[in-house]
Every structure is written in C-alpha cells, then in structure tokens.
Amino acid sequence: MEFRYLGNSGLKISEITYGNWLTHGSQVENETATKCVQAALDAGISTFDTADVYANTAAETVLGEALKGERRESLEIFTKVYWPTGPRGKNDTGLSRKHIMESVNGSLQRLQTDYVDLYQAHRYDTETPLEETMQAFADVVRQGKALYIGVSEWTADQIREGVRLSKEMGFQLISSQPQYSMLWRVIEDEVVPTSAELGVSQIVWSPIAQGVLSGKYLPGEAPPAGSRATDEKGGADMIKRFMRDDVLTRVQALKPIADDAGLTMAQLAIAWVLQNDNVAAALVGASRPEQVGENVKAAGVRLDADVMSAIDEALGDVVERDPGKTAETAPKGRVA
Is the model's pLDDT at 196 over the cut of 70? Predict the structure, then answer.
C-alpha cells in the first residue's frame, strides 16, 4: 500500500480507501462485511469511508463493529452528513447546525469512536446559509469530534467559498469526494484545478464506474445475475447511465490495454484515477473479501503516457466531461 497526504494537511491516508456504500447493512451479510474489512486491513488499507445515510445508519454500525479492537490511532475513519436519516423528519436532513450536531453524535456512537478523522458534507445544502454550516463544522472540530472537514459533490465555486469560510473560522477544509472514473471526468476542468489551487484533495468514488469498467457487462447481453445492474435497492439506478451498448462496446476495447499492462480491467480503472495528482485516494468497496485483494494491486501502479493515450482512444466520445454535471446532478433542495 502507498499513502498520500490529504489536501494541504499533514494527514496521510491509504491511496486505496475502503468504502461501504451499497454493501454493508444491505447487499452483504454482516459476517461477510466484517471479513471484507479484515481483508482490507490485511492488505494495508488504513482508511475507511462511510456515511450515516448508507443503509439508513446500518453501514456505520457494521463498520464500527468490524473495526472494534483495532488500534484507533492506526486508522483513518471518514463519515458524512446531509441525506435523510432516521424517521426522515423535517430536520433529519441537510446541513443545518441542528442536523450536523445531532448527526455527528449519532455517527460516533455507531462507529464506536470518540472522533472521526474526516467529517464530510455529503452534498451542498441550498436551504441553509453556508456560514451556519461552516460554523457548525468549526464547532465539531473544536469539540474534538472531527479532526478535518471535507465535502462531496460540491462545485468549484462552492468549494472555493467553503475554503474561505473555513479559514476565517479556524479549521481546515481539505477534501472533496466526487464521482470520477475513465468514463466520468466532469471534475477535470473546474473542480480539480480549483481544488489544487486551494489545497484540497479528491477522494474519488466509483473509480470502476459501478463495475462497468471491470468489463463484466457485455453489449447486447443481460447483466450477470447478482450484479449491481440487477440490484433494485439502488445499484441498478446508479449504474444505468453507463449501461448503453455504445459505452459497453468501448469499455471492451480496454481489455487488451489492461492485459498489456499486466492488470485486470478493474485494476486499470483504479490505477487510472490515481494518476491524477489531485487525487489522494480511490474509494473501493467489496461484496467478497477476495475483491479487496485484487483491487489493492492497483496501488503504486504508474501508467505511462502511451497507456493513458490508448485509454482515451479506446473510450472515444462516450466519456462524460461536462463540468456542469456536478451542479446538474446535485439536489436542488433538501430531500425529505
């Protein structure tokens, strides 16, 4: 495993970070989830990312149990706040002071820890003044409940204003967690250069495009039984933007490139996002422990310019690059 600094801070995290979105507390049994976490630890992963909304708080509970007994100082534990949790009452969502303060306490209890290393705004809250949100985060940091603050799926302008306010209030906003993959490059034109200027790193989710870049989905064929594309709990909805025959045909052209590099297609996809200097970590999940060991083999891989060019040529015009997609896909108001 290799480690990278997170933003303009002294915090180092594993460049392959284990995330439990769509798996723990829902798609896989708790015993299997615990085995996946242990496989991550055995592979040298020290950084774990979750959120209160995953499986409506159950994912945090599963992760807390799986990490119980590990040396806390050797781990970096991340979680998030924004989406509705609990009975979905009027204040059970968003980035108000009330929701942040109540949510961080719930997360710490479920994770069985006194603090999280990174507390992230899971989306931008259009209904709460940003000053209120950032003041609440400042207080969370001063109370010792979080060491650093991050955001997820914020636009470049939102990140810039968030960093300005964080400096005024005496804490560090050091990370952004966007979707990023060979197929989804919407952060490259605005979010990445703004973040690099401001000392903010990316922790990217879905580097394998929800499994599409593994090559297991074939054009003109039904998705494999039990795959994310067949999961009606949320996986199928997330992956459908990539499940077009033109995309799947282009993805198959990546196989000889991966073969020549001595990598699986999934490893190539993870290694590709890690070539971006502004990316501190790629988030990977697993439904089986052996998947963790395979994904970790992408750590430390360096792809030369010829390989990067061959990937661009293979994917052609199916790559989404529009920076406006970050704002377009964001919630326009709190989701109740």
Answer: yes
DSSP, residue by residue, 278-328: TEEEEEE--SSHHHHHHHHTTTT----HHHHHHHHHHHGGG-B--TTHHHH
Exposed e or buried b per residue across 160-171, where buried means at least 16 C-beta atoms within 10 angstroms of its C-beta: bbbbebbeebeb
Structure tokens at 26: 């829902």
Range of the domain at 117: 3-208+276-302
The tens digit of pLDDT for each residue in 312-327 reads: 999 999 999 999 999 9
The answer as to whether 314 is a domain residue is no
Q: Among residues of the chain, what percentage have pLDDT more than 70? A: 93
Beta strand ranges found along 20-113 (DSSP E): 47-49, 76-81
CA–CA gap between residue 156 and residue 197 (Å, rounded): 11
Say which of 5, 18, 54, 217 is annotated catalytic: 54
Instruction: Say how far apart CA 204 and CA 336 lie, in whole Å.
Output: 26
Helix (H) or strand (E) holding 237: helix 235-239
> Which has the closest alpha carbon to 334: 86, 91, 135, 157?
91
Task: Give me the sign of the Cα torsion angle 120, 235, 239, 274.
Answer: positive
pTM over 0.85: yes
Residue 261 lies inside a defined structural domain of this protein: no
Q: Is residue 174 situated within a structural domain?
A: yes
- pLDDT tens readout for residues 150-163: 999 999 999 999 99
Q: Which residues contact 190 (CB under 8 A, 6 or more apart)?
A: 155, 156, 323, 326
Q: Where are the beta strands (DSSP E) in 20-86?
A: 47-49, 76-81
115 is known as an active-site residue: no
Instruction: Give the HSE-up count for residue 291: Cα atoms under 13 Å, Cβ half-sphere.
Output: 18
* Confidence bin at 233 (pLDDT 50/70/90): low
The domain tally of the chain equals 1
